């Protein structure tokens, strides 16, 4: 465990849909290309994939296909071990396709992420990733969005490092352990209801930046909800909800994130 000073704070980012628009433009076509290469009788539409996003983890989404009728139609093994091996092969290939897309610069970074990361780093904040996606995919996106040099400053927790994936709090509880920090000093940045639930259930303050797949989800419990983190000179962010001491302006700043943290707000309220 890395011990961190009591005077430091941390920001922990989700990846898919938070750092970049990966779901619609990266994961969905990667899944469908994988299905085609393996001769599987399925292609997810955008709406169908939106439903699959309720399931945490790519392997788990693929495994959801394994109904008796699908197994029979695709000629797949009927035993659990054989099916697990098949899903692992699919997911390995899907990750290869996806990481190649990221390396080619095909997935747009979301506004404000790189800027907030630089602000946090300059202020001495700890940087971390908490994602249920495969680690290779996560690191590819992180390198693309913040640059390879800055990516080295992140603690990356991804994939199968915990037994239960979001919305279970396991990955955020592990983040607290690895960072050596208490929950009142950590803010999570998420884009979906499962991610929000995972952070909140771990006792961590969470801000939400929605995307096209998640904009209509229930974000009760979030400190504030915006349509993006925004950037100076760009279109002002839309604040969809705010239950914190933050006062977001045209774009979200590190000060806005700090204003959501109990360790900071309680200190300010002391006489």
UniProtKB/TrEMBL annotation:
GO terms for molecular function: hydrolase activity. Keywords: Hydrolase. The keyword Hydrolase applies. It holds the Pfam family Hydrolase. It comes from the Bacteria. InterPro entries: CbbY-like, HAD-like_sf, HAD-SF_hydro_IA, HAD_sf, PGP-like_dom2. This is HAD superfamily hydrolase (TIGR01509 family). The lineage of its organism: Bacteria, Bacillati, Actinomycetota, Actinomycetes, Propionibacteriales.
